[in-house]
Amino acid sequence: MMNKYAIAIHGGAGTILQSTMTAEKEQAYKNALQDAIDAGEIILKKGGTALDAVELAIVSLENNPLFNAGKGAVFTNTGTHEMDASIMNGKDLRAGAVAGVSNIKNPISLSKAVMEKSEHVFLAGLGAMDFAKKINAEFANDDYFFVQMRYEQLQKAKESDTMILDHTEDKFENGEKKFGTVGAVAIDIHGDLAAGTSTGGMTNKKYGRVGDSPVIGAGTYANNNTCAISCTGHGEFFIRSVVAYDISCLIEYKGLSLKEACDIVVMDKLVKIGGEGGLIAIDNKGNIELPFNSEGMYRAKKSSDSDIFIGIYK
User: Fold this and answer.
1) Per residue in 279-310, is it b (16+ CB within 10 Å) or e — as a string?
2) Could you give the CA distance from residue 299 to residue 230 in angstroms, rounded to a whole number?
3) Which of 14, 36, 96, 198 has a CB 3.0–4.6 Å from the CB of 111, allowing a cystine?
4) How far is CA 84 from the centre of its chain?
5) 35-48 in b/e burial notation, b at 16+ Cβ within 10 A?
C-alpha cells in the first residue's frame, strides 16, 4: 500500500509569453490553477480515488472561463460549441470519452459516466447528447457558454478564415498560437493512477473536427503499470504520434524513466513532425513531469510531501 498521493494539472500550452501577459491576468491564471489543484487534493487527502480527484480538478478548470473547456470553450465556425473530453482509470484500464457535445456543463463528468454507466468507451455528437439526457447530466444554455473574448476571437478568425488554436493574444496573425485544453493526472494513496482531458477544440473549427483530447492513447492514457498522461497541443500531431500511449510504452517495454520517456516523445519525436505542445505525466511511483516544447504551458503540481508548484512560462 502506498501512502503518498500526487496530482498535476494543465490549462493549455502554446505561445504564452510574459511580455503579453498583464499582472492581473497572470494572477487570475495562477489562482485558477491553485483552485483546481485544491479541488483534486481534497479528494486525495481523504483517501479518495485518483479518478475522482482528476474529475474534480478538471471540473474546476471547465467552470473557469479562462480555459478553453466547459464554460470557456471556443466557438466553432457556425457559432456553436463542440466539446471533447476523456478520462481513464489506470487500475483496470477502463475509460470513457465524448466528442462534439454541446450544452454539457462538464464534459469530463459525462466522460466518466460513459465509462461507469454504459458498456462503451467513446460516444460522439447527438448520441452522446441522448446518453447525457438519459443519465440526467447537467446541461447549460448557450448564454452560459457565451464568453465575449471567445466571441471576438471567432470574428477575428473568420476575417482571416483561419482556425485559431486558442485564446491567443490579439496578435495571433503574427503566428502566435495557444492550445487550450485542460487536464489532470493523479496517483492516490492506494497506488492507483488516473488521467483526464477536456477541451473546446479550435476556434472557427469546421466539419466536426476532433482533436487528441478525447482519444484514448493519444491525448489521455493511464495504466497502473506505468503512468498517467494528459496532453495539450496541436491535436492532429498528438493523434498521429499516439503520444500518451507512446510514453507508457517506452516505460513498459524499454524500461525508461518517466523523464526519459517524456523527453523523447515531447522534445524529439513531436518536434521532428512539427507537433507543438506539452503534457503532464505521473508515474506509478509518484514522480511528476511537466514537459512542453512550446513557449509556455499553464501547469501546476502538488504531492503529499511537497508544496504546490505553479508555472506558466518556460
Assistant:
1) bbbbbbebebbbbbbbbbbbbbbbbeeeeeeb
2) 11
3) 96
4) 10
5) ebbbbbbebbeeeb
Would you call 226 a catalytic residue per the annotation?
Answer: no
220: part of which helix (H) or strand (E)? Answer: strand 220-222
pLDDT for position 160: 79
- How far apart CA 244 and CA 257 sit, in angstroms, is 15
| Side chain identity, residue 222 | A
Helices (H), the chain: 23-45, 50-62, 107-117, 125-134, 142-145, 148-160, 235-240, 243-254, 258-262, 270-273
* Residue 138, SS3 per DSSP: coil
pLDDT tens profile 209-240 = 999 999 999 999 999 999 999 999 999 999 99
Nearest CA to 283 among 247, 242, 231, 243?
Answer: 247
Give the residues of the chain that fall short of pLDDT 70. Answer: 1-2, 162-176
Write down the catalytic residue from 49, 76, 168, 181: 181
Q: How many CB atoms lie within 10 A of CB 2?
A: 13
pLDDT of residue 2: 55
What does the pLDDT look like over 46-96, one tens digit per residue?
Answer: 999 999 999 999 999 999 999 999 999 998 989 999 999 999 999 999 999
pTM reported for the whole predicted model: 0.95
Query: Residue 155: how many CB atoms within 10 A of its CB?
Result: 12
Q: Is the distance from CB of 225 to CB of 191 less than 8 angstroms?
A: no
* Cβ atoms of 40 and 6 closer than 8 Å: no
Distance, in Å, from the CA atom of 49 to the CA atom of 65, rounded to the nearest integer, reads 27
